[in-house]
Write a structure and sequence with these properties.
Layout: H1 2-36, E1 40-42, E2 53-60, E3 66-73, E4 76-87, E5 92-96, E6 100-101, E7 118-126, E8 138-139, E9 142-143, E10 161-167, H2 183-213
Length: 227
Amino acid sequence: MGWWGFWSCLVVLGLALGLWQWERAADKRDYLARLAAAPRIEAPAAAPPSGSQLVLQGEYLAEETLFLDNRTHEGRLGVAPLTPFRDINGRIWLVQRGFLSTGPSRAAPSVETPAGVVTLEGRWQTAGESAPLFGPNREGNRLQRIDLSAWDLEPTFAHPGWLHLEQGPGHLASWWQPSVVPPERHLGYALQWWGLALAALVIMLVGARRQARSPEPVSIPSKETPR
C-alpha cells in the first residue's frame, strides 16, 4: 500500500502541475491577444482598459518625481522615473518614463523633465495586486514598488494605474514588458510535468509487477528439543 500511495501521489501531482501550466499558457495567449487588440484612446475621461494605448496632452509635475528602485536594463542597474502628469482637462496621471542608469550608487537620483505642454503616448497598466513588501516602500525619493499613495496630490490621480511611456518628450529607454514569460514556455513546463507523471506511473506499475512476482518468504518452524 505504501508503494502504491507514494507513486500515485507523484502521478497526481505531475498531472495537476502540468494542467496548471497549460492554463497559464492559455491565459497568456488571451492577455497578449487583448494587448494586440487594445484600443488607442486620446484623453480618456473614464478609466481605460488595461493595455490600452493612451495619448495624453498636458504638462509634467516635475517636482513630484519619484524613482522606482532596482531596475535593470541591458545589464545595467538603475531606476525608473515616475512623474505625475496633469492633462489639459486637469486630470492627474502617473507616467513611468523608462530606465535611468545610476549604477550601484545610492545617491538620490535626478532626471531632467521637459517643461510646458507636451504630448505623450504609451501603454496603460491598471493597478492590481502586488507582491508583499518587507520594510518601508519609500526611502528618500526611491520607491520599492509603484504605489499611488506615495504621492500627496490635490486632486489625486484620475484612475488607479499608470502609463508606461513609449513616445514623447521625457521618454527614456523602455524596460517594461507586458508579458515576461511567453505562452510557449508555459507549454514546455506543462509537457515536463506530464512527462514526470508518466515516468512515475511506469515506475509504479513496473515496481508493483516485480513485487507481485517475488516469492513470499517461507517461515521454518523451530524445532524444540523433547524433554
